[in-house]
What we know:
This protein is an alpha/beta fold. 43% of the residues lie in helices and 23% in strands. The chain has 10 helices and 8 strands. The protein has helices at 11-36, 54-63, 76-84, 125-135, 154-166, 169-176, 184-193, 213-222, 227-232, 235-248, and strands at 44-48, 68-73, 94-97, 110-116, 136-147, 198-210, 253-254, 257-270. The two termini are 30 Å apart. 46% of the residues are buried. The model has no long low-confidence stretch (mean pLDDT 94). The protein binds S-adenosylmethionine. Residues 6-8, 26, 30, 49-51, 54-55, 73-75, 78, 99-100, 116-118, 121-122 line the site of S-adenosylmethionine (SAM).
Amino acid sequence: MTASTQWQLAQDAAERYQTVLTPTILGPFAQALVDFAELQAGEHVGDVGCGTGAAARHAAKTVGSVGQVAGVDVNASMIAVARSLPTVGGDPIEWHVAQATELPFADQSLDIVLCAQTLQFLLEKQPSLAEMKRVVKSSGRVAVSLWTPIEDNPYFYTLVETVARHIGPETAVGLKSAFALTNTDEIYSLLDEAGFAQIDMQMAQLDLPMPALTEFVPRHIQATPMANGFNQASKATQQTVVQEVAEKLNAYVANGRTQIPFHSHMILCRK
Ligand SMILES: C[S@@+](CC[C@H](N)C(=O)[O-])C[C@H]1O[C@@H](n2cnc3c(N)ncnc32)[C@H](O)[C@@H]1O
């Protein structure tokens, strides 16, 4: 597996991730995970694979100044962007550059671990889940979001399929890898094997307003591991990809506004 399948972005792409992807897609789903996990004021929260910190920031608003939130990501560029953003109510969030297999938290020190759209990228899934289990209290919980199959996500499906056809599957995998863990039986087995006592899984649909796709698609690509392959393609090919994606998703445009459904599993496990 290459770094492009573990969602490793350089500093400029991490900044684009925050300005392009977080407001449109990842932010609303991070909020949905925090809501699904029913965080309470005063809770101590860890966000594993926090990226630029969307879930951590939503959590900080909910747990307030009596709670504590820490975000962990292996990618120093993501953490640098997270750290640069303003505090959002409550105490400042702690940010750590660390592997999911070596969480910088004491045993049983957290009420909840959030893991938003990250488990699919972890090479060492069982050791990472064991770490999440180690750091939550005996009554603690772990909340995970994972996309449902790409075919249920028309925007991602169309983009990946079009990039694969015009540029190549080795470029498309940079986004397709986000759909490496979508099967409910496989997810359940993974969490069951990790020893969680109770595993509740639901599917969340968010109908997300999107900017005009001819403008959004190239900016989105630059915020993903597909950027290198896309930038190496000819300008004509790049334009064809953008035009085709926009045309194929035209069914989601009404009165000049684009709104596209996205689907994710929301999973809550108890220790
Ligand atoms: C798609 S991003 C999701 C980020 C964030 N949770 C969100 O919802 O916006 C996946 C993140 O997982 C991180 N990641 C990948 N492998 C990791 C590992 N072994 N340990 C910690 N973080 C990891 C990546 O650096 C990236 O920031």
